[in-house]
Design brief:
One of its GO terms (molecular function) is glycosyltransferase activity. Keywords: Transferase. This is Glycosyl transferase family 1. The protein is an alpha/beta fold and about 800 residues long. Helix 24 (about 630-645) packs antiparallel against helix 25 (about 645-660), helix 25 (about 645-660) packs antiparallel against helix 26 (about 690-710) and helix 26 (about 690-710) runs antiparallel to helix 27. The relative contact order is 0.08.
């Protein structure tokens, strides 16, 4: 059975009863009271994100979400509520500026919304969940948003199924695991969650749907406004759809009219937009034809429009009986039934779950599904006895007092408060951020006599992916710089990585190859531009760090062989890598003509970027952020210093400072540009998936900036990026693994990627080398090993 609803179902409460949320969710009601009056704030929760549909979209979830927002603001004036509205793009709706729109089928939009919510300072999320309003199979794109934020989640379930499809079960299970508190719309929904889904009863609350708080009025006083005086009015309202059973009520009308010729059945509401798109007004036209065939067309009035709430309530108050003749047993709750009870309307309904629960004790009448005869008999009975009709009305109105919006707001406020109170601390109060000494054991573990393998399965090398020159170039740079490591070990492995690079040179086409299979077969004749630029960089660093040694001489020769052919590189990053290599060469050989030529020409090309105008807020070389971003300003900084070009230094500093701003979380820690940010022109980065390569690049770029701008606070930027490895990040989780000297492959919404590939291992060790080197060179600098103090200070 699929339990489907637009709104929550009410429970009758006496003045002595605690609200259902407190009763079912084990919430301390006392924390919500001040000297007998409800608080005007949610304890411990000053800011939430509310996700659902929203007005001006015309559907039940949109109306409900908007009313929830308004009720919470009225109950808790100091509470900040950011409203996120799903948009299917089909209706051309223009939302107000204060509503954050999520495109239903845009995968990136869910990640963007998660980043916005995390960065906004919200303390919790309140999600309105209904199958059909989110994109992906069974709406699974909402999981992408939820996975990318760690805030406590309170979820209102508008549909619960005890026989879900595989996708529905998968999505529901993940939402239920993620939720701190769950709101259901009827007691039956709570039962299913506990029995079929294994949910802890303590976190499930039944909260009545909110209804407006209006005084009870006699229908006769309202009828003249609508021209209904002299009629017994039966009303149904809501978006017109086949499962509403309107045809069943029309079939009951001949019997009603026979007993009460003045009876008028008012069918109020526009046809559902999805139905109009698919078949126009075929359903409405068919209902009109049916009424004419039965001879009751004069006793039926269609109000074919979307009615705003205040006018809708007036219509409701003018009705004598409200009817919900739904034909689908899977219907669990009706928002229109909730409104009818709130206005004190006697109800005749088919036996869906909410109707059975709330129409007991003579608040209304339940009749079998698809039984026009029973509908007619009960309506005639009620219309024929004013005392019985009035008794039902009074009891319905009393029940509705427990459903007014302020009750919903305070019940939900209690759940939000409890969810936040039970959330773990966002960041560990104490963690060691002591600087790590370079340690090549993890690098050696990933290497053999051929070179360093690319990928790992956890910490075990994965031979299926073989080798690449990118990683061997990085490994060579590590070995010639890690002076803390024993010289014989460094010499041994430097020779292995250098041999791989030498073998990678393809003299026939004057390019380096990149990928090699485990059986030592090259998989291409030439590698990417980036891999060629990075290899030239490694040769330049080796020349600088190992000058006057055999491997330094080897690097000089291969650099000289490759530098002129690689002057044709065109990609900005490939050029930046080559510039870093050329700058390293010029530090030990200022007269190296080819190195100076490539450094000058590539630096001028970077200075010319971007070629197309960009928005003032986008201060970058390209219209997107990608990988190894900090290498672009670093290359300009190193070029400017060597070439004595202040314009390059200024450009490099301004671009790096902008990038550091993009890579800073609201809490102030480093947030690497995630790979899911790639290819998004002019848009700020998304948090995940964060890669160690970005932290390393920022460390080394900030150190280069410090060399030309020692008072610019760059060492703090370097340390912030370095601490990302040690756990000062969005998940408060170290990526460095001291127990095996390793480094995880990245930071995902669910935690670290536990694989340890070459790129990640090398990023940590190279970052440690750079940080230790700058500490050693700083005049007056110090290394501290107290976890409460920074690793570097100057």
């Amino acid at each position: 059975m699929l339990l489907r609803s637009n709104f929550c179902g009410p429970y009758e409460l006496t003045n002595r009863d605690p609200p259902p949320a407190f009763r079912a969710g084990r919430i301390n009601k006392e924390m919500f009271m001040k000297r007998g009056a409800l608080c005007d704030e949610v304890p411990g929760v000053g800011h939430i994100a509310l996700i659902g549909n929203s007005v001006p979209r015309r559907c039940g979830i949109a109306t409900f979400t908007t009313h929830c927002h308004d009720a919470m603001k009225q109950a808790f004036p100091s509470l900040r509520i950011d409203l996120y509205a799903m948009d299917n793009g089909a209706d051309g709706i223009v939302y107000p500026d204060n509503i954050h729109v999520i495109a239903q089928d845009d995968v990136a939009a869910y990640s963007e919304a998660a980043a916005r919510i995390e960065d906004s300072g919200a303390k919790a999320i309140w999600l309105q969940h209904e199958f059909g309003i989110f994109g992906g199979p069974a709406g699974d794109l909402i999981l992408r948003l939820l996975d990318r934020t760690k805030l406590p989640l309170v979820v209102t379930l508008h549909t619960i199924s005890d026989a879900p499809s595989a996708d529905e079960r998968r999505v529901m299970d993940q939402i239920l695991r993620r939720a701190s508190r769950i709101i259901v719309m009827a007691g039956r929904g709570r039962d299913i969650l506990i029995s079929d889904y294994g949910v802890d009863p303590a976190i499930v609350a039944v909260i009545p749907h909110g209804v407006p708080d209006r005084p009870y009025v006699e229908p006769a006083t309202m009828k003249p406004r609508f021209g209904w005086d002299g009629h017994k009015v039966i009303l149904t309202f809501g978006l017109l759809a086949p499962d509403k059973g309107i045809d069943q009520m029309i079939r009951a009308m001949p019997a009603v009219v026979a007993a009460h010729p003045d009876a008028l059945y008012v069918i109020m509401g526009a046809t559902h937009p999805n139905l109009v798109r698919e078949q126009g007004e075929r359903l409405r036209d068919g209902l009109k034809t049916l009424a004419a065939q039965l001879g009751v067309a004069g006793n039926i009035r269609f109000v074919d429009t979307y009615i705003e709430q205040e006018e809708l309530l007036d219509f409701l108050q003018a009705a004598d009986i409200y009817v919900t003749p739904y034909v689908n047993p899977a219907q669990v709750v009706s928002g229109t039934l909730s409104y009818a009870l709130g206005m004190g309307k006697p109800v005749v309904s088919t036996p869906y779950v909410q109707a059975i629960e709330v129409l007991a004790e003579e608040r209304g009448v339940v009749v079998p599904f698809r039984d026009p005869k029973a509908l007619g008999l009960e309506i005639v009975r009620l219309l024929s006895d004013d005392a019985v009709l009035d008794g039902h009305a009074r009891r319905a109105y009393a029940c509705g007092r427990a459903m007014i919006w302020s009750e919903l707001a305070h019940n939900v406020g209690g759940l939000l408060s409890a969810a936040c109170a039970g959330a773990p601390a966002r960041f560990s109060p104490r963690r060691s951020y002591a600087l790590l000494k370079p340690d090549i054991r993890s690098i050696v573990r990933m290497s053999d006599s051929t070179g360093m393998l690319q990928h790992g399965i956890l910490s075990v090398p994965d031979r299926n992916h073989g080798y690449c020159i990118d990683d061997n170039a990085r490994a060579l740079m590590l070995m010639v710089q890690a002076t803390e490591v024993a010289a014989d070990e460094r010499d041994r492995w430097s020779g292995v990585y250098a041999a791989f690079i030498q073998h990678g040179w393809n003299p026939d086409i004057q390019r380096f190859r990149n990928f090699m299979s485990f059986d030592r077969r090259w998989l291409e004749e030439k590698g990417s531009e980036d891999s060629n630029g990075r290899t030239l960089w490694a040769l330049g660093v080796t020349m600088r760090e190992a000058a006057q040694t055999p491997i330094g001489e080897w690097a000089r020769r291969l650099f000289n062989t490759a530098v002129e052919p690689l002057s044709a590189l065109g990609s900005p990053r490939a050029r930046a890598f080559a510039m870093l290599g050329a700058a390293a060469v010029l530090e030990v050989d200022p007269d190296h003509r080819a190195a100076r030529t490539i450094l000058t020409s590539f630096a001028d090309a970077l200075m010319a970027l971007p070629y197309a105008p960009q928005p003032p807020s986008w201060v970058w070389f390209e219209d997107v952020l990608a990988y190894d971003n900090a290498r672009l300003p670093e290359a300009l900084l190193r070029a400017g210093r060597i070439l004595k070009r202040d314009d390059m230094i200024r450009r490099g500093l301004s671009r790096l400072r902008w990038l550091c701003g993009q890579q800073r979380s609201p809490e102030g820690h480093f947030r690497a540009v995630g790979s899911e940010s790639f290819g998004r022109p002019g848009k700020p980065p998304l948090p995940y998936d964060q890669q160690p390569l970005e932290a390393l690049a920022t460390v080394e770029a900030a150190i280069a900036a410090h060399a030309v701008d020692p008072k610019g606070g760059w060492l703090a930027q370097a340390e912030s990026a370095y601490r990302w490895f040690l756990g000062q990040n969005d998940l408060d989780t170290p990526l460095a693994t001291p127990f095996n000297q390793g480094c995880y492959d990245g930071l995902t919404p669910g935690g670290p990627n536990l694989n340890q590939g070459a790129e990640s291992l090398l990023a940590l060790q190279l970052a440690s080398c750079a940080m230790n080197r700058i500490v050693g060179l700083l005049s007056g600098g110090e290394v501290t090993h107290n976890s409460d103090k920074p690793s570097v200070s100057a």
